[in-house]
């Protein structure tokens, strides 16, 4: 197999506690190809977010390491943009300015002022938020905030887009809407995406591969499910697709039978 | 408006809206007035029964008349001052017309500063001390809030210096200022420097402490945003830390200004430095039958100015604050 775009090798992490070292994650191996959409799914507390934070460079792995395009990852950087669960927009900046902060940081040497403005507006358009460019985060809805969060991440033109339960805090209708938007964007731009989710339907609908994580402590990759549904995917059509239901069942089986959570 | 049925309805709506507005404002306006009136009555009642060696304690009426006395004095003094400068100018012109080479001297007027001049001096001094303190406190607070080791190094010093009374600093500051500030043609009076430095020493701490808290409690997610963007340390402070800490910084600044104003009056009294404190002390030493009334005027003015300074800071905070929906008070 050729060298992967993003490769995690023997990644583990332990945190010091009062009772000695707590091993949260152990021996995570993963190869992700360019343009692939990968979901991490598992019970809460299984270390999904930890994996994402290690790839982002926000945490340092205790053992093993992450390689992106043949270079080791050991610090955060805009080529691995993160969409945070609770949007994390700067409340004192408008939507436009929030994206501008990222664009100015990434393209300060390569884009002119006009090009930057066009690029920011292009990204606002991409998430259908041009109408709210001058609004503050406090003035728009949760779904809109998350759209801006995604636009900010995309505007960095990242090699890998990391999404930490991006739609977890949204209502079902808004979530469906944003999932459709995300599929469109992914089809357009072909980003490599790693997304954490709790939602089985979301995982099957969006992913090329679903990484199912075993429960912690010492959590690791349990099973990997290849989702071979043709793109573009239609939410309504898939509802009657037997393969969709098989994938769904496979994930549910892993989560609720093989990894039954003793105390939920 | 030809239809009487509709115009009747409109008048009714307007009327009820007015009543509603009046009912809403009444408690907000009426209760403070009642409180103030009750206080004045209580003051009047008590004042007559307190006998001091300088006569009975002044009631509201005496204080009001002393206030107008002070206004009159100020106007008289202002006239005298203009007259002095006019005379001086005439004299100098006469001298110059006789001998164009003559060196004319412009002497400042040296009359006794009036109450209102003392107010201006005090305001000027407190603002100088406050600005000096803020220019030191905010950067220091930001740096200590960002760096845990530095915070650990400086925290004990803050805790020790914070509770020191201004009166304890005053002799040291006076001696140091006289030793260090030795210019033959000083830009500022020594007394002014002494007062301002004492104010600065005392109003440093609330701003430092609150800035540290504001910076150290920066939201973890926003910190991560900054890390993912790889912002430089300077940009991190300018774009993320400072806006996030603004509310706490202002809490500190308001506490500092209030402390500074209290400290200044005490310092002026003790050091005989020009200002409202000296005015009170002079009146106390003067010991005329009007003294207590005049001191009372000063006391009330000090309170009003303290209140106004806080409102000023609040207005500034509202102007600077990004969260216009926050209920600042």
UniProtKB/TrEMBL annotation, chain A:
<dbReference type="InterPro" id="IPR017871">
    <property type="entry name" value="ABC_transporter-like_CS"/>
</dbReference>
<dbReference type="GO" id="GO:0005886">
    <property type="term" value="C:plasma membrane"/>
</dbReference>
<dbReference type="InterPro" id="IPR003593">
    <property type="entry name" value="AAA+_ATPase"/>
</dbReference>
<keyword id="KW-0813">Transport</keyword>
<dbReference type="InterPro" id="IPR003439">
    <property type="entry name" value="ABC_transporter-like_ATP-bd"/>
</dbReference>
<keyword id="KW-1003">Cell membrane</keyword>
<dbReference type="InterPro" id="IPR050166">
    <property type="entry name" value="ABC_transporter_ATP-bind"/>
</dbReference>
<keyword id="KW-0547">Nucleotide-binding</keyword>
<dbReference type="GO" id="GO:0015112">
    <property type="term" value="F:nitrate transmembrane transporter activity"/>
</dbReference>
<dbReference type="InterPro" id="IPR027417">
    <property type="entry name" value="P-loop_NTPase"/>
</dbReference>
<comment type="similarity">
    <text>Belongs to the ABC transporter superfamily.</text>
</comment>
<dbReference type="InterPro" id="IPR005890">
    <property type="entry name" value="NO3_transporter_ATP-bd-like"/>
</dbReference>
<keyword id="KW-0472">Membrane</keyword>
<dbReference type="Pfam" id="PF00005">
    <property type="entry name" value="ABC_tran"/>
</dbReference>
<dbReference type="GO" id="GO:0016887">
    <property type="term" value="F:ATP hydrolysis activity"/>
</dbReference>
<dbReference type="GO" id="GO:0005524">
    <property type="term" value="F:ATP binding"/>
</dbReference>
<protein>
    <submittedName>
        <fullName>Nitrate/nitrite transport system ATP-binding protein</fullName>
    </submittedName>
</protein>
<keyword id="KW-0067">ATP-binding</keyword>
<feature type="domain" description="ABC transporter">
    <location>
        <begin position="6"/>
        <end position="240"/>
    </location>
</feature>
UniProtKB/TrEMBL annotation, chain B:
<dbReference type="InterPro" id="IPR000515">
    <property type="entry name" value="MetI-like"/>
</dbReference>
<feature type="transmembrane region" description="Helical">
    <location>
        <begin position="167"/>
        <end position="184"/>
    </location>
</feature>
<feature type="transmembrane region" description="Helical">
    <location>
        <begin position="240"/>
        <end position="271"/>
    </location>
</feature>
<feature type="transmembrane region" description="Helical">
    <location>
        <begin position="196"/>
        <end position="219"/>
    </location>
</feature>
<keyword id="KW-1003">Cell membrane</keyword>
<keyword id="KW-0813">Transport</keyword>
<keyword id="KW-0812">Transmembrane</keyword>
<dbReference type="Pfam" id="PF00528">
    <property type="entry name" value="BPD_transp_1"/>
</dbReference>
<comment type="similarity">
    <text>Belongs to the binding-protein-dependent transport system permease family.</text>
</comment>
<keyword id="KW-0472">Membrane</keyword>
<feature type="transmembrane region" description="Helical">
    <location>
        <begin position="291"/>
        <end position="309"/>
    </location>
</feature>
<feature type="transmembrane region" description="Helical">
    <location>
        <begin position="25"/>
        <end position="46"/>
    </location>
</feature>
<keyword id="KW-1133">Transmembrane helix</keyword>
<dbReference type="GO" id="GO:0055085">
    <property type="term" value="P:transmembrane transport"/>
</dbReference>
<dbReference type="GO" id="GO:0005886">
    <property type="term" value="C:plasma membrane"/>
</dbReference>
<dbReference type="InterPro" id="IPR035906">
    <property type="entry name" value="MetI-like_sf"/>
</dbReference>
<feature type="transmembrane region" description="Helical">
    <location>
        <begin position="123"/>
        <end position="146"/>
    </location>
</feature>
<protein>
    <submittedName>
        <fullName>Nitrate/nitrite transport system permease protein</fullName>
    </submittedName>
</protein>
<feature type="domain" description="ABC transmembrane type-1">
    <location>
        <begin position="119"/>
        <end position="313"/>
    </location>
</feature>
